[in-house]
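[Automated response] Your request has been received and processed.

Submitted sequence:
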Amino acid sequence: MRQEKQDRRSQRTRRLVISAMMELMAEKSYDAITVQDLLDRANIGRSTFYSHYFDKQDVLASVAEQMLELLSQQFSRRGAGQGIIPSLELFQHVLQNQQHFRVMLRGRVREVVWDAAQTSLCRTIEQALAAPFTKNRSPSVPLPVLSEYLAGAFLNLLKWWIETEMPYSPAQMNDMFQQLALPGVWATLEGKRAAPQRDGF
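Generated structure:
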């Protein structure tokens, strides 16, 4: 019971610190944020902070992990008909959490978070491609190259959409992504299929 209380207390502290970091990054640049700012905003003591984090860079890494967890949850919920990238669901998710994702496009945060997202998304796509599409055949483009291409195309389009104040709906963005990215992917995977079906990727 005591351990359970400690775990709950630790989780609460981490939530407070991550929330404080997100709020502060919405107000000023990451470089201008100090550990003292985090302590004041989270209303915790210095010893409590350092029992959970090494420094503010460690907090930023936790913010990146949280974003990746949000994306991973979307992937884990995709149905059989949604294919490799549940792009519509991801666009909808970002729209619902747009303030959170806007913060992720600023300064050093952008570099840390989106690089991590690219790596994670590549790995997820490669795993998804390996099973159903390449079981009995080898694609003309190696899976790591194909995965890197798809992850980069999707994330760059997603970043552009956020930065331009989301001028199109999630459904429109999903449709455009599929039109732009999928014909070549299907041709590579199947050898003769030049365009995806309407239900997409």
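Summary generated for your ticket: The domain at 1-53 is CATH 1.10.10 (Arc Repressor Mutant, subunit A). Confidence is low (pLDDT under 50) at residues 193-198.
If you did not submit this request, please reply to this message.
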